[in-house]
Design brief:
Layout lengths: L2 H12 L3 H26 L4 H8 L3 H7 L9 H11 L10 H9 L35
Helix pairs in contact: 3-4
């Protein structure tokens, strides 16, 4: 077994512990958010001050949001950052195997989304929205 496989098996063993699993997921998501904010800002050739102005925040707040160990993001803050960059925020609930696959495939951390306005002919694409059962249904 090579060293990468041993590390992977070691992680899987640790992930059996709920406290470790929760901390791993939280820190992985937090670091990915920080990297995405930083990469989007750099792609736009913006300073932290410029992003702060666009998002209606202070520069010090942007600095904190770009720290990989910061985990207290509010959804409202993420929406403000996304709006400043003209991109969307996606939140999802996934199983641990799906999460691990997602986190492994993030060598694309350097990849940043296009703005919604530039979004690759979004108007030509039919968008199907999954609907939740109506809250007022009698089920």
């Amino acid at each position: 077994m090579n060293s990468r496989m041993r590390r992977g098996q070691g992680l899987l063993d640790k992930l059996e512990d709920k406290d470790f699993r929760d901390a791993f997921v939280s820190s992985t998501v937090a670091s990915r958010i920080a990297v995405r904010i930083f990469n989007l800002r750099k792609k736009m050739n913006w300073t932290q001050e410029k992003l702060a102005k666009e998002a209606g925040m202070k520069q010090a707040r942007i600095s904190v949001l770009e720290q990989a160990d910061y985990e207290n993001f509010s959804f409202n803050t993420l929406k403000r950052i996304a709006a400043a960059f003209d991109v969307a925020v996606v939140v999802d609930f996934v199983s641990l195997p799906e999460f691990l696959k997602w986190s492994e495939n993030l060598s694309a951390e350097t990849v940043t989304p296009e703005s919604l306005a530039k979004g690759g002919d979004a108007k030509r694409h039919a968008i199907k929205l999954d609907r939740h059962p109506r809250a007022d249904s009698n089920d």
